[in-house]
Amino acid sequence: MTRISAIARRLVPWLVASVICLVSGELVARFDDWTFDDIPFLANPDREHDLLLRDADCLRGRPGGKFKKYHLNDFGFRGPPMTMEKSPHVKRVLVLGASESFGLYESQGHEYPELLRQTLHKEGDNVEVVNAAVAGMTLPTLTDYWTHWVKRFGPDVVLIYPSPQFYLDNEPPKAVTPKPESETRRAAPFHSRLYERFRDTAKQSDMIKSLRVHYLLAKETAGKDAAWFFRDVPADRLKQFRDDLEKLAVAVQASGATPVLVTHAFKSPSPPEEQDLKLLNAFRIFFPRAEPAVMPAFDEAARQATIELGREHGWPVIDAAGELNGKRELFADPVHFNDKGAKALANRLTHDLQPILRDAKGGS
Amino acid sequence: MLFNSFAFLLVFLPITYAVFWLLPAKRSPVGQVKDPSHKTSAASYRYIWLAITGYVFYAHWDPWFCLLMAFSTLVSYLAGLGFLTFDKPVARKFCLIVPITIDLLLLGFFKYANFGLESAQWLIDALGLEWQLPSEMLVPFMNGWQLRFREIILPIGISFYTFHTISYIVDSYRRVITPTRNIFEFAAYVSLFSQLVAGPIVRFRQIEEDLENLAAADRTRWLPIGVAYFVYGFAEKVLLADTLAGFVDPAFKDWARLSTLGAWAAVLGYTFQLYFDFSGYSSMAMGLGYLFGLRIPLNFNSPYKATDPSDFWQRWHISLSSCLRDYLYIPLGGNRHGEGNTYRNLLLTMLIGGLWHGANWTFIVWGAYHGVLLALYRRFAWAWDPLPRLVRQLGMFFAVVVGWVFFKGESISVANHLLATMFTPTIGDTVHRPEVFALLLAIAAWWAMLGPNVHELTAHFEWRWRHTLIFSVIFGASLALIAGGRNSPFLYFQF
């Protein structure tokens, strides 16, 4: 007992100090979040919980939602306050897309729809830009979202920036029709903000990233036969992408707005170079079926399909991919922009959008 | 690699510390003095390890610049050997002038070449001449097997380690110190990671004794005070400076939109951010020195308690101001040749001091401003000194705050705009969460202007249970902020 008590006497102060350390860290993490990100002290922030609203019709942004740097307005769109009715003599441009358009890695206020708004204003255009993108939204879900929610805002022009990579997922994308929140919503459980901070920091370590990619890929691809993998551009998925994009654009046009298709930009060229393979391999944790080279190849094929679709229907197409593909300095990951990339896209959109805006008749 | 990063705290420091103290250190015979007859110092293993870790630490930023530091170290080491070998004045002068010229040329090239080109072009344009100088200097580098050129990148810490080597050369020439024959000892001194990239500027004579006795250093004697200094500096840097930066940096990013209140808030915030950032780094450097048996001198002694310009410069960045005094002001003549020459010497010294901070006219203006303050104080001390202490402290603080506007401003016009905003009623933006910022500012002001500094807190330091509690709280809070991405590089890294 003497030996045990001697060991305990030495360990207990360290244990107490560790507990004090952790409690202090947790309190400061919460205070820091409240100070700089407006997250209530006792809240348990959760991205899906705080930013998404599910009703019987569709999935959309939560009105007034807040999560870290992401603040939504009263209609669940990321951006400044607005009214449902647009002001007279103002053209309303609405952006539909997923996280590339919602904004992920850019600094606050540097996502491309916001920059587009600023540059159009600087050019003297009387234009309102609404960022109606929702992170993670595939084309089928976007069509529901448009039909049940977004079209009531009567945009003149709708920029559609689709995300082709969802079509390389294990299963092809389908429209999500979630149950109403009253049936499913529960309070987000308690989780330690300090732990989240350490976890996110650890994920940035190259060594941990590497191990994580290796582990996740092995888990996803275990037991799969060769035919399961996409070694070339899957023709059926490409066709589905084209069909889904067409469905959405037709729905937009039916409301009286002008659909403008924007080709999706990708960080690495097709075929990728040696320096791109590591990043592409890491990106595979989201799309394990696709071999690294297939991802940029599919994106390039989607680009061609988008251009063809626009030509067929007479819809304007802004070939952002043609200008931005392969310019690695513009991207934070294979598909998401950094501040520089968002600015480059915004500039290109400004240039191509102005003649379209002059001709746009407006939606209802 | 920042002191306030996980890579340093969890990997670099533990390994460096453990290996250092596990290395076999041959004890020096009692009473041994430095042996001029080429005997290897008893602590060579530890010198080698400190030198290696210094280069590993530096290589984390840019491995190629290790070669530059190694070259500078070698040149200064050879100069020291020259002073040991030669007695003739001509030879000694050669050993003084040539290495210092090389060091200054390197510093001048990397730090001031583009600034020089810009300023020369401005002057040429102002004179109406139609000469076009190159827009920037390019330097060659190897990209694999290909020779390429790129714009000049300022090697981190070059201003600091250059001053280390120059002070060593001058002190050797003046016979204030005996140069060392042990290249590892000298390399360890120059590349010591604790002060390598942002000071303090430690003169060889200040740690010569500790370096000589490295073999006999007592780990347990210095450990508590080393940890105390390090954690205190950690709190200054992470809890205060980096948190203030969260308010100050966004405000300065949009400086043109600030209101009068916003401008004052931003400038006052920066005043304390800069102090705690640099003081925190210096405290950490001292703590790290203690952990390895080296007593690094104090660099900040509560400068915002100063009551006049002379007092301020005996409290702020003490290592730099004392170098400027000993190697510039006094050789220029100091105050020994009449009032006019004294004012000139003060102004010149502070101009160089300002220029040392960076290649921008704002630093030169800031330096000149402090030179003028020192001259004015010298002239009117008879009127200033009898005033109540509080009045003098607040007056000096106000003067320093105005000076920081130039220090922070990207250009003279930005600084002027900020000053105009501060002193004429302007409507605009203020800082985010002003109520939280005001509280933080009040805490910072109390700590800097009234509270004890690290030196006062750790005088006669003995570890108690309450220290464990306090340090646990500080450490936990700091780790939360670092993990949240709130750790910014030390402001003095850019110099």
Task: Describe what you observe in this structure.
- The complex is a heterodimer of chains A (364) and B (495).
- Chain A has helices at 2-37, 47-51, 99-102, 112-122, 139-148, 181-184, 193-203, 206-221, 235-254, 274-283, 294-313, 320-324, 339-359, and strands at residues 52-54, 59-61, 66-67, 70-71, 91-97, 127-131, 157-161, 258-262, 317-318.
- Chain A is α/β, with parallel strands linked by helices and 364 residues long.
- Helices cover 66% and strands 2% of the residues of chain B.
- Chain B contains 18 helices and 2 strands.
- Chain B has a two-stranded antiparallel ribbon with strand order 1-2.
- In chain B, strand 1 (138-143) and strand 2 (146-151) form a beta hairpin.
- In chain B, helix 3 (64-85) crosses helix 4 (89-126), helix 12 runs antiparallel to helix 13 (361-384) and helix 13 (361-384) packs antiparallel against helix 14.
- The longest helix of chain B has 38 residues, at 89-126.
- The model of chain B is unreliable at 30-41 (pLDDT under 50).
Largest Cβ-defined interface = A-B, 23 and 24 residues
Order of helices and strands of chain A: HHEEEEEHHEHEHHHHEHHEHH
Nearest-integer average pLDDT of chain A: 90
Residue ranges of chain A: pLDDT <50 for 5 or more in a row?
none
Please give the largest β-sheet of chain A: 5 strands, parallel
Multimer state: heterodimer
What share of residues are in beta strands of chain B?
under 5%
Written as H for each helix and E for each strand, in order along the chain, the element string of chain B is HHHHEEHHHHHHHHHHHHHH
Structural class of chain A: alpha/beta
| Average pLDDT reading of chain B | 87
Tell me the helix content of chain B. Answer: 55-70%
Number of E-state strands of chain A: 9
